[in-house]
Amino acid sequence: MTPRTRLFTAGGLLAAALLTPACRPPGSRAAASAATSPAAKTYVAPGEKDQYYLFYSGGHSGQVYVAGLPSMRHIATIPVFARYPATGYGYDEESRQMLGEFTWGDMHHPGLSQTDGRYDGRWLFVNDNANNRVARIDLRDFKTKQILGPIPNSSGTHGSSFVTENSEYVLVATRFSVPLPKGRYADPQRYEAEFNGMVSGLAVDPKNGTLSVGWQILTPPFNWDLGSTGKGPSSGWAFWTSYNSEMAATNLEANATRLDRDYAAIVNWRAAEQAIKDGKGTITGGVPMIDPGKVPGVMYFLPVPKSPHGIDTDPSGRWIVASGKLQPVASVFDFEKIRQAIDRKEFTGNVRGIPVLSYESLLEGDVPVGLGPLHTQYDGKGNAYTSLFVESAVAKWRLPPWSPEERKDLNKVVLDKIPVHYNIGHLVIGGSDTKEPYGQYLVAMNKLSKGRHISVGPAQPESSELIDITGSKMGMLAEAFTEPEPHFAQILKADRITPIEVYPKGENHDPNAVWSADQTSITRTGNKVVVKMMAIRSKFVPDTIEVRQGDEITIHLTNVEQTTDMLHGLGIVEHDMNVVVDPGETKTVRFKANKPGVYPFYCTNFCSALHQEMQGYLAVKP
Ligand code: K7E
Ligand code: CUA
Description:
Blueprint (H helix, E strand, L loop, with lengths): L2 H16 L19 H5 L9 E6 L6 E6 L4 E5 L14 H7 L11 E5 L2 E11 L4 E6 L4 E6 L10 E5 L5 E5 L4 E2 L11 H4 E10 L6 E9 L3 E7 L7 E7 L8 H4 L5 E8 H9 L4 E3 L2 E4 L8 E7 L2 E6 L5 E6 L5 E5 H9 L3 E5 L2 E4 L1 H4 E5 L5 E6 L4 E6 L4 E6 L5 H5 L5 E6 L4 E6 L11 E6 L15 E7 L6 E8 L6 E5 L27 E5 L2 E9 L2 E3 L2 E5 L3 E8 L8 E5 L4 E5 L4 E7 L4 E6 L12 E7 L1
The structure holds sulfanyl-(tricuprio-$l^{4}-sulfanyl)copper and dinuclear copper ion (CUA).
Dinuclear copper ion (CUA) binds next to loops.
């Protein structure tokens, strides 16, 4: 069924329910056509599937959550920066090595890979603000494949993950500044002189998505905030806002709000790439770095409203919208004018040799959107949607060109406002950061839910609300509760990707994989014991492992199933160990048999009628 007929059918079912007299308050107007009721628009009947993926960040849980739209149902968790026993992530050798010494991450902004300015469905990149890392999830199997970092010279990788038009780079800017290279001590009193921020271009291998540090650009110690990449006329450029142009080191609440404006960075990333090729960088912390005060053409500063958060490029690539939390406006800049000013060298001054552009002459207009504007998204039909943190609302407004009359009073281009619950941070429209937004749904990601749910005690969830943006007025459709903390999200059309559900046996190149009982083995070399084990409904082979206390044990576990949804786990009692193997997958675990005794192991994924019988013993002789 096409989505339309599916919704219509669902609507028909709902209509029947809604028309039951008991469900309708006395005196209410006849129910609007059920097909257009909010419930019908989000109803995905049992057995039916959602139209879109919503990939939202799990904040300081370190994970990505996957929900379906329009149902808002949570479908999967993709562990990235923290252990996750549900999928055995962080227990096997490969994922343990990826996690390294860290047990958590603070994920903020997922970014989908792009080809020609459109989502290509290959990878999802995510950042870790706490431990300065960026990770790549492969959408072929929804698994984390790489964690890059801690990135050299980079502290607080909040201003990422912004993907360029053809996934040449994932761009990253630092929230914090530190003395460089990292590990060097300097008195925080000497912040302005000794501390620096950084913009990094992480190169993406076009074949397999592998990330590496391509180049870095040294910046003054401003606190870089959100950013976006260019397209069309702004192709090859990227933008970030910042706070703390005062370069204060303490009590930022007061000390970083003294001046009238902060700076946005306008970065020509193609010029940065070229400068490195031309040998204009210096190697710092092992990676090539450019000082933009000495290499002209790489970075410019544009004054923007005070304490801005988001800066978002529209789908045409011409309009750049920055919002200052402390001013009730969204400032619109015309990139074509910015480009002309740069070409004509129309600068009002410089900061550490980095040219400053003129706010007044480049501003297209300050749109009075409301209180506490943070982020802006686009529907591809000329409209912009800005989240209002203080006002707990989303404002819909129209991008330029504006008539002379509208220019006189830009209230005229503010078209609609809808309340959200409560204190919205990010908002997302599918494809807003591409050339072709889907323009059907907007998800408001609210920071507080304040008891709009049955009580769960003091630790309350966040709330996310689904808003219909197909009409002239926005329509509230549904609300879902999410764990801390969905900072940002990406929406992808479900039919854009076809993930695999079984790892084909032919693609398993692990030399320790075993596919039948006669290939399994237990081999001892000195005090090292290597077990090649297979899991199949409903047994482990071998199911008894005899070792001596102090032995180092390596288990290569292969799930020989080639059937979808047939997972097995291996949990070892009192050994803090659990791995899960998907069909056709081999994973390796390594541990020391420190304690004498007999320890049962068992399958942790309910796999069959005899799942409970899927168990064995690790026998450790003293
Ligand atoms: Cu929560 Cu983008 Cu990190 Cu805004 S951030 S609200
Ligand atoms: Cu295998 Cu349960």
